[in-house]
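Sample entry follows:

_____
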Amino acid sequence: MEPAPSRHLKQGYLQPGKNAPPSPHVLRHDRYALSDAFLRAASSESVSVRSLPASRFALRDMTIATRIDLAADLGESFGCYRMGDDQGMLEIVTSANVACGFHAGDPRVMDRTVADCAARGVAVGAHPGFPDLVGFGRREMDLSPAEVRTDVIYQIGALQGFARAHGVGLQHVAPHGKLANMAVVDSGYADAVAEAVAAIDDALIVLTYAGELAESARRKGLRVAMAGFADRAYLDDGTLVPRSEPGALVTDSDEVVSRGIRMVLEGIVRSSGGSDVHVRCDSIVVHGDTPGSVDLSRQLRKGLTAAGVEVTALRDL
């Protein structure tokens, strides 16, 4: 995560200009040897990684994270319709991306989800999406920058009200579905989302992945955290495989664990095309509507812990 130059900046933490992912020439055989050791550690705890340097970028040319956030998209039920197992997920994750009523969720669901997060010490983040309940916010919409900005302000503000009612603050904003995808590649959508976040609270963290939104948020002085998706397949360009295509979801627990560990400890994920793609990862996100998401998340957290990674909320990184 990249703190803005402010009082929130922690001594010795990631500094602007020092966080670029390693260049392609970095992929060497020693990287894979290290990966094998970490995977053995995750499965048996017989290999210790405690002797590694403690800094986030511990080894030259390698992205080593000793702490990571584990997040899930929650609060996506609506009325009498239930989506996912929020109670089960909240026993595992450290942050929650809470739907704000546009793509999913309603006032009662938002209230209950924030209350449950507060009771368990899980950090609360807003998960704004397109106004598309029927399509679950996963359909492309042609909106003006003003519409995107005001829709996002509306949704963050709604969740902020419930957070205040339960005595907690908002930690971050993580756009949902097609809004998230379009903000990564379209500067108009990206600027509108970043402007909305900055207008509400410039201490909020923007959770996204590499692209236009991250750049726009940085330009506005916002803190940026990078999301890695252990239960989603990646294309060679580092974007996610569209859900309409076969293999977009990763549901095998062993594969989710191994992908998650490699993202965190090496900054790499194997694409659907068989290439090793660089990913910066401050938070691993598991989708609450992925089949078996509770078991996947439990196994992932167990694997990360066994590999020597501390799982903690973004605010504590």
